[in-house]
Write a structure and sequence with these properties.
9 helices, acyltransferase, two-stranded antiparallel sheet, transmembrane, elongated, single chain, 314 residues, Palmitoyltransferase
Length: 314
């Protein structure tokens, strides 16, 4: 009876998470990241050069973006006509920009991103548990099959096939689930593993990592009672993310605390532009930024922003 109840629980959670992964629409950038009609006309009218740089600079001046292209340009999508938020990428299959895009999964026929990444993780977890449960309960009959302890019927071949299928899927799912658990612990996406995010001052593969606990909360949320359920509980809106590497922007006149321009040459551990409320508390709820780290950062030589050039990026 206990095995039967556990079987139905795993199966229901598996189906529920799989359903949510498939039918949860990926989130797209909000309207504030889209260029206005006048900016679009200016961008199309002006030749590639400083004039286009100025249009994109003006459009992104008040947006919470910190990453750049390899040449230092503002990340712009010429198909969606928008300034890309951090960790946003254009999916060639869906033909639209996806917030915190991880990859396009053909098995679920959907993009895995900010809106359904938690569901995808739970789908992998419950699929793995389901396969392990099937393999464990079928093991005794599989052993009897090889010791000729089963009746000589066609059912014994079904037992052998079921065990091999469950075991092989368990191996593949365990590797995939383990890989995505590592991504969550490092606060990375699959795309960011292959191409590290480029910030204003340098490239850093761990630029969005805030520590294991905070990285976990970004995906699963603050309410632990919802962690194992396929309900959306991720923090933030997918457009802005806290990072430990963003320095004061030399182009900004002041910091969030109201400091004047005399502090431009100092490096700061907190973003100059405000993050969303649901994301910024990850930076302030615990004393993760030590005074020693702050002094070490101040000792580094600051680098100004490179000249921004127009560059399309997927």
């Amino acid at each position: 009876v206990v095995c039967l109840v556990a079987y139905h629980i795993f199966f229901m959670l598996f189906v529920w998470s799989y359903w949510k992964t498939i039918f949860t629409l990926p989130m797209n950038p909000s309207k504030e990241f889209h260029l206005s009609y006048s900016d679009k006309e200016s961008l199309e009218r002006e030749p590639r050069g400083e004039s286009q740089q100025e249009v994109l600079r003006r459009a992104a001046k008040d947006l919470p973006i910190y990453t750049r292209t390899m040449s230092g340009a503002i990340r712009y999508c010429d198909r969606c006509h928008l300034v890309k938020p951090d960790r946003c990428h254009h999916c060639s299959v869906c033909d639209k920009c996806i917030l915190k895009m991880d990859h396009h999964c053909p098995w679920v026929n959907n993009c895995v991103g900010f809106s359904n990444y938690k569901f995808f993780l739970l789908f992998l977890a419950y699929s793995l548990l389901y396969c392990l449960f099937i393999a464990a309960t079928d093991l005794q009959y599989f052993i009897k099959f090889w010791t000729n302890g089963l009746p000589d019927t066609q059912a014994k071949f079904h037992i052998m096939f079921l065990f091999f299928a469950a075991a092989m899927f368990s191996v593949s799912l365990s590797s995939l689930f383990g890989y995505h658990c590592w991504l969550v612990s490092k606060n990375k996406s699959t795309l960011e593993v292959f191409r590290a995010p480029i910030f204003r001052h340098r490239t850093d593969k761990n630029g969005f990592s805030l520590g294991f606990s905070k990285n976990l909360r970004q995906v699963f949320g603050d309410e632990k009672k919802y962690w194992l359920l396929p309900v959306f509980s991720s923090l933030g809106d997918g457009c802005s993310f806290p990072t430990c590497l963003v320095n004061q922007d030399p182009e900004q006149a002041s910091t969030p605390g109201g400091l004047n321009s005399s502090s431009k040459n100092e490096n700061h551990l907190f973003p100059a532009k405000p993050l969303r409320d649901s994301q910024s508390h990850l930076l302030t709820d615990t004393p993760s930024w030590s005074e020693t780290t702050a002094k070490a950062e101040k000792g580094k030589v600051g680098m100004s922003n490179p000249a921004l050039t127009m560059e399309n990026e997927t």
